[in-house]
Amino acid sequence: MATDLDEHVDQFRNRPLHDAGPFTFVAADALTMKVREGGRVVSCAVLVATGVNNDGHREVLGVRVSTSETAPAWKEFFADLVARGLTGVRLVTSDAHLGLVEAIAANLPGATWQRCRTHYAANLMSVTPKALWPAVKAMLHSVYDQPDAASVNAQYDRLLDYVHDKLPAVCDHLDQARADVLAFASFPTGVWTQIWSNNPNERLNREIRRRTDTVGIFPNRQAIIRLVGAVLAEQNDEWAEGRRYLSLDILTKSRLTPQPTGQEDTPLQLSA
């Protein structure tokens, strides 16, 4: 049974992506798991990518186990996706995983990075005095409540003005992260809620955790791939049979969205 499952997962992980593309929107995430190696229990990173295919359905693009989250690990991961046919990526949404932004720039020229708004809020909270966080949080959330790109940027300016004098460290944090947390605003408003955070993948992550927590410590990396790969393959089938995640009309409009000026010449930056 394990051999059959390994074969099924291997075929799923290495399937060509050409016919399902272009994948306008991609989301990437990493989960930490425990595995026995060399007589010790160590942590490893499970890298996962999902995307929206040319029919508007979500699709699991790939999964890989790495020793840790590093630029080389992410580069290898994305290089494999590109080799299998990943094309047409306009936006990659993720947390600020170490090395991920560099990997996007190296493998997906023309793609923009959207820093997950949920994770960014947590990062910003860590540099904000506790007493002032409710006000800063409310203003940050108000940025995402705006009806169009111009209003989004105007409200972000108001947020910067609010913290400029009283919270210089917070102001600097927001200023450095601006392009990354507002990348969604370059696309049609109808797609914003699906691309400005990794929240749509949280259900998938919870299911992976539910299944892997029963194991606890994996005997080897192949066991991780076997179980996580099976969960992802099941989810991929559900997405394929379910309703479209994005309409074909909104996908077409998103592909026609002009790239920001200087996008191809300016390397993606990662703020803390």
Automatic annotation (TrEMBL):
Its BP terms in the Gene Ontology are: DNA transposition
Q: Note whether Cell wall biogenesis/degradation occurs among the keywords.
A: no
- Keyword DNA-binding appears in the UniProt entry: yes
Q: Which domain of life is it from?
A: Bacteria
Molecular-function annotations in GO? DNA binding; transposase activity
Keywords attached to this Swiss-Prot or TrEMBL record, sorted alphabetically, are: DNA recombination, DNA-binding, Transposable element, Transposition
- Check the record and name the Pfam families matching this protein: Transposase_mut (PF00872)
Task: State the function annotated in the UniProt record.
Answer: Required for the transposition of the insertion element.
Q: Which family does it belong to?
A: Belongs to the transposase mutator family.
Q: What is this protein called?
A: Mutator family transposase
The organism of origin for this protein: Rothia mucilaginosa
**What is the taxonomic lineage of the source species?**
Bacteria, Bacillati, Actinomycetota, Actinomycetes, Micrococcales
